[in-house]
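Bug #77: duplicate submission created two jobs. Keeping one. Sequence:
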Amino acid sequence: MSMIRRSNIFDPFSLDLWDPFNSFPFANSQLSFPRTSSLSFHSETSAFASVRIDWKETPEAHVFKADLPGLKKVEVKVEVEEGNVLQISGERSKENEEKTDTWHRVERSSGKFMRRFRLPENAKMDQVKAAMENGVLTVTVPNEEVKKQEVKAIEISG
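Kept job's structure:
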């Protein structure tokens, strides 16, 4: 059984946000950092942190799979930037609230999200393909063929 490290603490493009002052007793008092409200900050944080993406490399390509339930393909952007950077972003709209509605629980996140990945030099960034099916975005970035170097035997004289 292989161990897969799911923590992205070493990922320089990770946008998982952590608020070190969230659990302090003064987090919601006048002493805390100015925010519009603790609830709105939390919902923005969860929107960024909720997009989970798997990245695997096969001999032929780098394959990214993102779970984006409820989003249409027009609400998601896949972009390629200089320096072999792949960016996946989008926005999940907030549900309309009616004055007569009573919410008992709100667990689904809304808001903007963005994830960026720096790909190795062998990625063919001009041949990126993306497809969305059943709420799963699949982005495929082909690899250049690795040329195997010929090994030439050298005869030893003497």
